[in-house]
Structure formats: C-alpha cells, structure tokens
Write a structure and sequence with these properties.
Strand order of the largest sheet: 1-3-2-15-11-16
Number of helices: 1
Order of helices and strands: EEEEEHEEEEEEEEEEE
Distance between the termini: 27 Å
C-alpha cells in the first residue's frame, strides 16, 4: 500500500476561493478585484464572503465592499489571508471596506466550460464569471511558496481564457493577465476548489 501524503500542522480553513483580478493596462495596477470564499470549516464556522474592490487604489467604502453571511469569518479571512494575496497587498481598498449582509449566493454553469458565482446583498448584485475554462489540475504549495509564507496549501485550480466582474449588470473594466501557477499557464482569474490552508 502506498504511503499517504500527510501535511503537518493545523488546518485553519477549507473550502473554495475562486478569484478575478483585472487590469486595463497589463503593465499597470489592478483596476478591479474579487475574491470569493465558500468556507466549510474555519475557527469562525462556515460561511460565504465576497471581497470586492471596484477601486483597489482608493480607500472607498462605497465601492469596496464585503458581502457575507458571517462577518467574523470574513474579517478573519481578510486579515490573515486576503491581505497577503499578491494582487491585494498592499492596497488602500483593504483599509476601508463596507460590510453588507448576504441575501443570496448562487452558482451558474459548470466548472468545465463556463462558470459563475452570483452574490447579492444590500441591493447590490455581483456576478463573477469565468469562460474558456482549462483542464483542472491539483497541486500543493509548501509554506515557502504559499501567499502567507506560513501554510501548506493543497488545492485544485482551473484556469480560464476570459473572466469578468459585473456589478448590477455592468461589467467592470479590465481583463485578467497571464501568469504561471505550479507549472501551468493560467491567468489572474481562476477557480480554486478543494482549497485547504494548514498552518505549520
């Protein structure tokens, strides 16, 4: 029997964390960001949280919001994880976020060709969409390569050719830019499923 792969440490949270990071100029700053969480296990329980920065370079609480059904969990994720993600650090948007209670969260399409997460709250509806999905791949980053520098991160990623962030039916400007993850050519928009963060 093959030996199992065992990750030492403490599981801090597990779930899904698809994201979309857009630029209007490939060499410029990110112009719109969205990080979606569907958490099944954390120190603050289960929950959904969408962290949306329509103005990443500004402390604009009207345009930079968090829609969630578990605010303590969302605040914990932002402080310990989102603030360490490459596209999000260090951003003025994280210094002034407005928290909105979640009304509904639904999934559209499938994870093989065309997928969307639709989140609504406070009279706002946000639709994240990934199109032209690539082949799923599974990998595990060690602490030295994870965003926090403190965790193992086994995960399943699906890259995409196109992605968008729509707020109340209007698409935010920008496109994802190419990047490489675990030897795979993807972009700054991807589906991240079966994601687990294990503190060493």
């Amino acid at each position: 029997m093959a030996e199992p792969i065992v990750f030492p440490g403490v599981v801090e949270w597990s779930g899904e964390n698809p994201g979309v990071s857009l630029k209007t100029d490939p060499n410029g700053p990110f112009t719109a960001l969205a990080s979606f969480f569907r958490v099944v296990l954390s120190p603050h329980g289960r929950g959904i949280a969408l962290v949306l920065a329509q103005a990443p370079q500004a402390a604009d609480a009207e345009r930079n919001v968090v829609i969630t059904d578990n605010e303590p969990m969302a605040r914990w994720l932002i402080e310990n994880y989102v603030s360490h993600f490459g596209a999000w650090k260090p951003l003025p948007a994280l210094q002034s976020l407005r928290f909105i209670p979640l009304d509904a969260a639904t999934v559209e399409g499938d994870a093989l060709s065309d997928y969307a997460e639709v989140v609504s709250g406070g009279g706002m509806t946000v639709r994240l969409r990934w199109k032209g999905l690539g082949k799923p791949f599974c990998f595990a980053f060690g602490p030295e390569h994870s965003a926090t520098g403190k965790h193992h991160m086994p995960s399943l990623f699906v890259g995409c050719a196109e992605a968008s962030i729509e707020v109340d039916g209007k698409a935010l400007p920008g496109k994802p830019i190419p990047r490489k993850v675990a030897g795979h050519d993807i972009s700054t928009a991807m589906l991240a499923f079966s994601e687990t963060w294990i503190r060493v």
